[in-house]
Amino acid sequence: MAVNHEDNKPVGHKLYSELAHKSLLRSDALYKYVLDTSVFPREHPCLKELREMTDKHPRNVMSTPADEGQLISMLVKLINAKNTMEIGVYTGYSLLSTALALPSDGKVLALDINREYYELGLPMIEKAGVAHKIDFREVSALSFLDQLLQDENNKETFDFVFVDADKDNYLNYHKRVIDLVKVGGLIGYDNTLWTGSVALPPDAPMLEFIRGYRDYVIELNKYLAQDSRVEICQLTVGDGITLCRRIS
Ligand code: SAM
Ligand code: CA
Fold it and tell me: Complex ipTM, two decimals?
């Protein structure tokens, strides 16, 4: 079955049962330990509600795992981010994590081609009292970024950008986002280890949707590793998140 769990293409439940969870930790017990010990006890009640609602959605595998949400929250606070952007919202787990971590006058510009997904999580975002920080746009991200870049005033204005949409466009996003983020600001690219497939030989057996995007993720990782405009850090949280701190 040709599917992609990271965008809008059809998906099937059976496929995901093969994945169990998205963490790269190969011990289910250890991952459960992390969640039960350090993540769930501190999860905001509205994030919990959003996560449990999303768990019942057919495309739930797209959601940011709770431990990664905790990481995003910590990063946003550590860099004192105020002006942020998210590319790829789905039902909003990472969005709500970001919005909760921002100061009351902080902003997150949230881009997704599908407003319906966002609206599933919106009641929990409103209940958490952070909807005023979110500017959701139902747009195709690439052309929207191009529009933003047409106005010089938007350049170097974002403290933090989380990229979690169509993997085949990540390099295109990077070429634009790099000019929108401040020097000293942070970009997070999600799913950069792509269930570990990036390290497998090309002829290794893998699910079709994994194979379909693998080359794009490998190309992005190579590009980021040689991009002197950023300092990078590849984390193995979730499905791999690459942090890029703009340095020039
Ligand atoms: N960050 C989300 C979370 O925490 O649940 C998960 C995002 S999900 C992996 C990817 C999202 O990207 C989907 O909601 C999909 O509609 C959106 N998307 C796919 N292609 C897009 C595009 N070209 N522009 C904007 N959004 C896109
Ligand atoms: Ca993701």
Answer: 1.00
